[in-house]
Design brief:
single chain
Length: 253
């Protein structure tokens, strides 16, 4: 979009009591476990002139198909237990992750993971760790995750509640249930580590004179497609508002 067009829009908008504009689609890149995800973003901007600047209300929708398409690669980065003798007694080892899907469930996203698991017994004999295989089975793990707002300008991801583990073997189910709290903590730590850096969070653009706070961020769905919906409000100077309008010309590829 040409600068003269931006200026015309700006003058037009500031000359009215209210001004509405659709921004995008544009694309932001968010790395998760080192996997770059391109997320198309569409925004609706309502504004009104106030105090030499513009009062803003933003509603943003992001298409998380890229996240869903990379579900298996993301699931394989999760810290599933691998040590058959991590502690004395029974231990659970996830041998492989064969499938993964990410879906919406209300305002939560759910990661469904399937693979193979082995239960081991571990004992120390004459100073040596001795492991004994108890059983091997298929395993299904469900991990609920939610969006939260770590700072007024950022949206991040964390585990919500506890993961659930299901197997067909009663012995493995018993061990998994005993270890679930620890597993859930490991999942939580891994997600936090992956998204704790600024570059791994979705952020409000750093535009001088733009003071916007994110008020809400939740997951949603459109049939099988996972979406993120966010709302923000704030204030912008005339120059910052012009820069924000410029995003309308940055179309997603």
């Amino acid at each position: 979009m040409a600068r003269s067009t931006l200026a015309a829009l700006l003058i037009y908008g500031l000359g009215r009591a209210a001004f509405a504009l659709d921004i995008g689609p544009t694309t932001i890149s968010v790395p998760v476990f080192g996997i770059p995800l391109d997320i198309p973003i569409q925004a609706s901007l309502d504004s009104k002139s106030e105090g030499g600047g513009v009062q803003l209300d933003l509603a943003v929708t992001g298409d998380l198909k890229s996240l869903q398409d990379n579900a298996l690669a993301i699931a394989r980065k999760l810290p599933f237990p691998e040590d058959a003798c991590a502690r004395k007694g029974p231990n659970l080892v996830v041998n492989s992750i064969d499938s993964a899907h990410i879906r919406a469930e209300g305002d939560t996203a759910v990661i469904d993971v399937a693979g193979k698991v082995t239960a081991w017994g571990c004992a120390k004999v004459l100073g040596q760790k001795i492991k004994t295989k108890i059983a091997t089975d298929r395993i299904a793990i469900t991990i609920p995750v939610e969006l939260y707002i770590p700072t007024p300008r950022q949206v991040a991801l964390r585990v919500k509640g506890e993961a659930s583990i299901k197997t067909g073997d009663p012995q493995i189910t018993e061990i998994a249930t005993a270890l679930l709290g620890n597993l859930n903590q490991r999942f939580t730590d891994a997600v936090a580590k992956a998204l704790d850096k600024d570059k791994a969070r979705a952020s409000v653009p750093e535009i001088p004179g733009l003071d916007v706070k994110i008020e809400q961020a939740v997951f949603a769905q459109d049939q099988d497609k996972l979406l993120v919906k966010a709302k923000a409000d704030g204030h912008a100077t005339s120059a910052a508002f012009e820069s924000l309008i410029g995003l309308a010309g940055q179309k997603a590829p």
